[in-house]
Specification:
46% helix; two-stranded antiparallel sheet; Rossmann fold; binds thiamine diphosphate; 11 helices; five-stranded parallel beta sheet
Length: 284
């Protein structure tokens, strides 16, 4: 990644964070923590890595994204809006009646969304099927599958991973967002995932662990994954739930945040203003 594209990815991550905070503040609540932890990955994917045409979302040769942890939809919607799939104003209709942006991604409603998700685990199987179909068609497109660490409680994930590994689907890059928390506590307390890199290796994957908040590290891991010829590939993202906004990183219950106290509202507004300043500084 050149300095330019790295800067683009970082700027996009800042915009995603700003938009996620703004839309959830406008909505009064929403899945903040797990949206912010994948902002940097979304920045690298849409800022540099993906092959897409925002004006032709069904372009045959596009890369596919499956956000299996579908509750982080706001981060994906922000990435899509900032990448030109639809107008940014639409973000403020999140979860409203008749919206094209339901809280969880719907492939029949959202331009750029190829797979409906929200029921944890299911996206792993559908992504596996998409990658297998692309392989059969001789396509060079990739499927980027994003899974949560808490989501791994679903046995379906391990069945899908076994299928991906067995078929050596190196066109399906599996990202595990290891932000150490799930809905109601620390992942290790709810159901310990143990060492995710070792576990993925045991399943037959080429697996690495990277700082999921670092655009350069993410890009290097993606390039490494793309160079793997003979096995499935997984990138475990070492992330922080709520990443990028210290107040929300430190909030224990930051899975779905209610913006209903002056303190939380002020902190969100302060963070949005700080991100706006960063964005304006980068674009000046
Ligand atoms: C099958 C299923 N069971 C339960 C839920 C409710 N639920 C939504 S998010 C979540 C926690 C997910 O944790 P994780 O994958 O770590 O998400 P992150 O921390 O990255 O937001 C749960 C249990 C669901 N959406 N689907």
């Amino acid at each position: 990644m050149t300095t330019d594209t790295l800067a683009t990815a970082r700027l996009l991550a800042a915009k995603i964070r700003r938009d996620v905070l703004s839309m959830l503040l406008d909505e009064g609540q929403g899945h903040l923590g797990g949206s912010l932890s994948i902002a940097d990955l979304m920045g690298v994917l849409y800022g540099k890595e993906l092959r897409y045409d925002a004006k032709n979302p069904h372009w045959e040769d596009r890369d596919r994204v499956v956000l299996s942890k579908g509750h982080a939809g706001p981060a994906w919607y922000a990435a899509l809006a900032e990448s030109g799939f639809f107008d940014r104003d639409v973000l403020y209709t999140l979860n409203d009646g008749g919206t094209m942006l339901p809280s969880h991604p719907d492939r029949l409603k959202v331009p750029g969304v190829d797979m409906t998700t929200g029921s944890l685990g299911q996206g792993t199987s559908t992504a596996a099927g998409m990658a297998y179909a692309l392989r059969l068609k001789g396509s060079s497109s990739y499927v980027h599958l994003i899974v949560g660490d808490g989501e791994l409680n679903e046995g379906q994930c391990w069945e899908a991973f076994q299928f991906i590994a067995h078929n050596r689907l190196n066109n399906c890059i599996v990202y595990i967002d290891d932000n150490k928390k799930q809905l109601d506590g620390y992942t290790k307390d709810v159901m310990n995932p143990f060492d995710l890199v070792e576990k993925m290796r045991a399943f037959g994957f080429h697996a690495v662990r990277v700082n999921g908040q670092d655009a350069a590290a993410l890009d290097a891991a993606i390039q490494e994954a793309k160079a793997v010829q003979d096995s499935a590939v997984a990138i475990v993202l070492d992330t922080v739930k709520g990443a990028g906004v210290p107040f929300f990183e430190q909030m224990m219950g930051n899975h779905s945040v209610k913006f209903n106290t002056p303190e939380v509202i002020d902190e969100a507004k302060r963070a949005i203003a700080a991100l706006d300043a960063v964005i304006e500084g980068s674009e000046a």
